[in-house]
Amino acid sequence: MDELIHKIKEIMIDVATGKARIEETNNQYQSIYNELDSLYQSNQVKNPNPYTDLWEFHHYWKEKLPQYSDRRAYVIKLYKKASSKAEMSIDFWAVIHPAIRSVSKSRFESNHFADSVEAALKEVNVRVKNVFITLTGQEEDGASLMKKAFSVNRPVIQLDDIGNETGRNIQQGYMELFSGSMIGIRNPKAHANIDITKERAIHFLFLASLLMCKLD
């Protein structure tokens, strides 16, 4: 949310101080506005910005805010209180699996978002690996481990009744979620210096938490 707020403030200030044209930025503004509005609603926080497009904002500043400095201060003040309230309402750690919280929270709160996600998925991998070694005596890792551990035909870790179609679908689906999280999320971060936003990190942490809860 912080990144979206920063961007929409930047756009509003730029158009209100002559650095950008409304015609060239209004579509981007509206897209960000709608995304932020959804986030505010989901967190039961009132959207502080009444301007659904930049032309509405233009009419206001032309009438009420004659100076560039006034317009800049207005935009900053507009989001200040709402941003604090939104941050206070997002206590997602309360519903994150304890094992994920223990390895990811300090990294996340230090703004090392990609590292927090990598640590979370490494924790998932370690837990599956330990169960797999205990039950088979074999050592695997990553996507290969997940495919063998959650195989529909010969599961080492069985998540549902594979004697019926629904159970097989669940087993197959989670096998692909576990495997895909290793290939598409953990591995790229482990092999490259990748940065992600705070919001994207939250999405990935919820996924890691879901996987760990399913293992429980």
What would your notes on this structure say?
This protein is an all-alpha fold. It has two domains: 89 residues, no CATH class; 123 residues, no CATH class. Helices cover 73% and strands 0% of the residues. It has nine helices and no strands. Helix 1 packs antiparallel against helix 4. The radius of gyration is 23 Å and the shape is elongated. It starts with a helix and ends with a helix.
Describe the sheet with the most strands. Answer: none
N-to-C CA distance: 31 Å
Note the run of SSEs as H and E: HHHHHHHHH
Total strands: 0
Number of helices: 9
Question: Per the principal axes of the C-alpha atoms, what is the gross shape?
Answer: elongated
Mean pLDDT: 89
List low-pLDDT spans: none
The helix content, as a percent range, equals over 70%
Q: What's the number of structural domains? A: 2
Q: What is the radius of gyration?
A: 23 Å
Class per helix and strand makeup: mainly alpha
Hey, roughly how much beta strand do the residues contain?
under 5%
